[in-house]
C-alpha cells in the first residue's frame, strides 16, 4: 500500500501563511501608544531604555538608576521576588512607569534541560525543537524571564569551535527550518501571553566561520558564501517574526558586526525590512576598540548607534556618551527615537505594561509533561553511527552488563553547555536509568574507570576491566564534560579527552562486545577507537532525561532515528568540513594513494594530484545526514513530474521508501540538488528539503517534494541574486552521499 505522507515541511509552510509572524500580531494601537509615550520622554529616559545591564540583585544604586529611568532591561536576574521588586521600582517610582524586561540565556531549557541545540538538530524534527523551546519558555517565564538569546543560527562547519554545540548544524535549510521552529516555541502564538518569551536570532553574522575554529576569531567570508550559506537562517527567523537579533562578536572581512552597516543597515534593515530590536552582544560595541575599529568607547558608541544597534548589552557606552555625540552632531535623534520605539514596542507586545509582575509560587519546573518532552527530544537526538551484527538493541538473552566510563553517571555534565539554571539533582543519568529499569532483571556491574572526562588517572582501570570480564556486554559512556564546549571553549584536539582511549583499549582486550555511547558538544575524533567497538551511539549532551532516553534506545524500547546535522570528520585536520563544498578543479576519485600505500621514492606526480589528504583521504568519517536505525529502509522508484522547469513552473520529485526490516522506525528523507554549471561555482550538493516519516515493518510510503524555480536561486559576489538556465542533478536520499539520482533542465521560459 502506498500512502502519501504529510510532510513537516509542508505543514510548516502552511502554518507560516496562517501566522505571518509567530507570536507577533500587527497592532496599530501599540504604535500609537509607543509614539505617545516617546513624546513624553526626556533624552536621558530614552537612552535609559537602550541600556541593558547585568543584574547584581537589588541595591540602592540599582534602585536609583531604575527610578531615574536609566535602565531598560536587565540580564541574568532569575529570582522572581527580586524581579518583582526591581519591576516595582520601575513601575511605581520611575517618572513614566515603563516596565523593565528581564532577559536570560535560556538556550536549551531553563530547568528541564533538553539536548544541546546541535543534538536537537539531529532530530531533523521541527516539532521536537519547537516543544523544547516551548517548555523552556513556560519555565523561564514563570520566574519573569521574557527575553531569551536564542536561537543561535550560526552555520557551523568546524568542530574545534566550542560553539558548534549551540548551533543547528552546517546546513542553511535545516538550520532555517529548525530555527523558525525554535522562535515559534519561545514566542508562542502571541507574545502577550504570559508564557511567551521574545526570541533572539544570533549571532548576526558569520560567527561560525571563525578562522581555525577559535572563538571570537576573524572571519573571512565571500559575498556569495555570506548570502548563500550564513544569512538564510537569519532571514527565515526574521520572516517568522523573531522579536530580536543579536550582532556577533567577530569581524567579517575587516568589519566587526557591531559596526557593520552593510550587514545591519543594508541587509537586515533595508532589504529585509527588519524593524525590531537589534541588540549588541555582551560588550561587543566596547570591543570595537580592541578590534581596532573604534578609537575609544565614545567612538564605539557612535558606531554602534549609527549601525542601528538599538540595545547596548553591558557595553556601558550609550548612557555616558549619547548626549555628547548628539551635541557634536555625530548621531541623530531620529535614530535614537527609532531604537527606543523598538524597545517600547516589545514591552507593549509582551504585555508588560498591563502585567508587569509575575505570580510567585506557581511551580511549573520539571513538570512531568516537560520531562516527557525532554525524553522524547533525547531519543530523537541520538544518532546511531555503527551497529555491527545488530548488537543494538541489546538482546533479551543478555544477563549482565558492564557500565563503564566517565559519562555513565555525570548528572552535571550530561546537561551540556549554557546551563545556568538546570539542577543536576533532577538529571536522570544512564546509570540511574539502567538500575531503575533493569536493576532487578540484569546483573549491572558498574565501574567508572575514570571519574571525569579529562581524568588521566588509571588506578581504577583494573576494576573496570574486572566488571567487563564479568559481563556479557560493555556499555561505555564516554565523551566530553560540559565545560569542554560552548562559548570560548574550543579545542584543537577533538579526540576523547583524558585516558578514555587507553581505558577503551584495555576493555577491547577482554573480547567482550562494546557499545560506545558518546556524550559531547561536538563530533569527537574517534576513527582510531571505532574498530574496537561494535556499536557507536552518538548523543551529544542529551540533557536532564538523557539516561532514560538512552536506556530505551539501548534496549530497543525506542528506535534511533537521528541523523547528523554536521559532517563528522575522521580527523580534526579536515576542519572546516561540510558536505556542500565546491568540487575544485581536481576532485579526488575513489582510488586514492594514501600515506600507508605510497611506494618508496614515488614520483612527485604519481599520487594523482587531486584534492585530498594523504592521511585522511577526502571523505569524512560519517557524512552529513547520516544515521542508522534498528530497521532498514529501501529507496526506489524516483519520479520527476517533468524534466524541464521554467520560471513559473514546479517539479514534483517523489520516490518510494519502504521499511524492509522487522521494526517500526522513522526515516529522515532528504532532497538534494546540484546546479552543475554556474557563473560562479556551485556546491556539489545542496539540501533543499527533508521529511521525517514513520514506517511500520514492510510498509512503504511515497515521499514527494516540490521544487520551484525560486528554490534554485543563488547569490553571486556582487549582491545579485541569480537564477540560471542549465542542467541540475537531483537526489532523494537517506544522507548526503547516497540516494537515487535524476536530472532536470531549467529554462526561464516566457
Ligand atoms: C555572549 C554570547 O556570545 C551570547 O550568545 C550571549 O547571549 C550573551 N553573552 C549574553 O549572555
Notes on the structure:
- The longest helix is centred in the middle third of the chain and has 17 residues, at 333-349.
- A six-stranded mixed sheet has the order 12-17-16-15-13-14, with helices on both faces. Strands 5-4-3-2-11 form a five-stranded parallel sheet.
- α4 (60-67) packs across α5 and α17 crosses α20.
- Mean pLDDT is 96; it is low at 1-20.
- It is built from 20 helices and 27 strands.
- α5 (80-93) links the parallel β3 and β4.
- Among the domains are: 30-43 and 103-349, Glycoside hydrolase, family 3, N-terminal domain (TIM Barrel, Alpha-Beta Barrel), CATH 3.20.20; 633-746, Immunoglobulins (Immunoglobulin-like, Sandwich), CATH 2.60.40.
- It has 750 residues and is of the alpha/beta class.
